[in-house]
């Protein structure tokens, strides 16, 4: 009798013991991770749409083990504030221009946005991919891992009065995002000033600045052309963003989830490249339809020549700057 009771007790005990998911520790539910991502750019722009795609892919491929969300524009503060949040762990990832993001600590990252040194967007995207490891190495001491460099397209100048030649830019107050842009404007005879991306519309509207510069897609997504009606095709700079992950958070992920995040970042970058090429053309046509006059430079060679001394100036800053420039320009 005692033996049968013991046997029954053992059967009940076995049946009532929970079965744990493969790969999890006994007695613990499978862990989930939050991925809060942010960009200071609009959700309707191609960088914003790429981020939306990234979040969708992470949520799908992680089978719910990562809960990814995204914020756009100035919802969480300006770009500098968002970068600081990612550095301290209040965000797990920020989408930022390297020069005005972690470039706070690694200023040579501003070289990604330098006038007249890249042939075209195809070369530029090869540079972004080829420099990913170098960027990660440089930002790692500040708590970041870099992935998924994305071109924002070739930039042109949006102004309140027409610019068709170099002399037209003289003494204009132009917004630029970092010190390289300010140097460029000085070499071109204008007065450069920095301000956050989300302050530009009001600055144009109130006359604080006479103009700004960005790609057609970026300009159109923020409606800057509503308050400045002249766009000059200058192709002076191509700009970019990277995904900057909080290193501690990324390293806390199991290896399979790290792979999910990397794959999602690569897929989002490939998606953004396709839609950006198309959106640049569409945005330019929409601006024309909405009353923007498109100007072509009559003296582009003079613009290129005026900026040539800048490269020697930036090479002379330090060995770190010179080494980074060499690596950047070696990728053709």
UniProtKB/TrEMBL annotation:
Top-level taxon: Bacteria
Family: Belongs to the bacterial solute-binding protein 7 family.
Gene Ontology CC terms: outer membrane-bounded periplasmic space
Classification via CDD domains: PBP2_TRAP_Siap_TeaA_like (cd13603)
UniProt KW keywords: Signal, Transport
Protein name: TRAP transporter substrate-binding protein
Position of the signal peptide: 1-21
InterPro entries: DctP_fam (IPR018389), TRAP_DctP (IPR004682), TRAP_DctP_sf (IPR038404)
Keyword field contains Chloroplast: no
GO biological process: transmembrane transport
């Amino acid at each position: 009798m005692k033996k049968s009771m013991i046997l029954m007790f053992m059967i009940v005990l076995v049946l009532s013991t929970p079965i744990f998911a493969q790969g999890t520790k006994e007695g613990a539910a499978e862990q989930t991770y939050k991925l809060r991502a942010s960009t200071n750019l609009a959700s309707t722009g191609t960088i914003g749409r790429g981020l939306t795609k990234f979040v969708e892919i992470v949520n799908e491929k992680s089978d719910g083990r990562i809960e990814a969300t995204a914020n756009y524009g100035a919802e969480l503060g300006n770009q500098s504030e968002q970068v600081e949040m990612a550095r301290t762990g209040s965000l797990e990832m920020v989408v930022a221009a390297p020069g005005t993001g972690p470039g706070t600590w690694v200023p040579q990252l501003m070289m990604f946005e330098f006038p007249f040194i890249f042939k075209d967007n195809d070369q530029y995207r090869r540079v972004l991919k080829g420099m990913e490891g170098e960027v990660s190495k440089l930002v790692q001491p500040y708590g970041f891992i870099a992935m998924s460099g994305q071109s924002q397209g070739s930039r042109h100048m949006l102004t309140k009065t027409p610019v068709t030649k170099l002399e037209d830019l003289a003494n204009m107050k132009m917004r630029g995002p970092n010190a390289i842009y300010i140097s460029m404007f000085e070499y071109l005879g204008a007065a450069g000033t920095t301000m956050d991306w989300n302050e530009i519309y009001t600055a144009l509207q109130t006359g604080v600045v006479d103009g700004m510069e960005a790609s057609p897609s970026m300009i159109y997504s923020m409606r800057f052309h509503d308050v400045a009606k002249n766009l000059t095709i200058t192709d002076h700079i191509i700009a970019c963003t990277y995904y900057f992950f909080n290193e501690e958070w990324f390293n806390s992920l199991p290896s399979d989830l790290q792979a999910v995040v990397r794959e999602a970042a690569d897929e989002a970058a490939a998606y953004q490249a396709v839609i950006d090429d198309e959106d640049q053309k569409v945005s330019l046509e929409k601006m024309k339809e909405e009353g923007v006059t498109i100007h072509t430079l009559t003296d582009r060679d003079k613009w290129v020549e005026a900026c040539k001394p800048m490269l020697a100036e930036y090479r002379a800053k330090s060995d770190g700057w010179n080494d980074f420039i060499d690596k950047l320009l070696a990728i053709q």
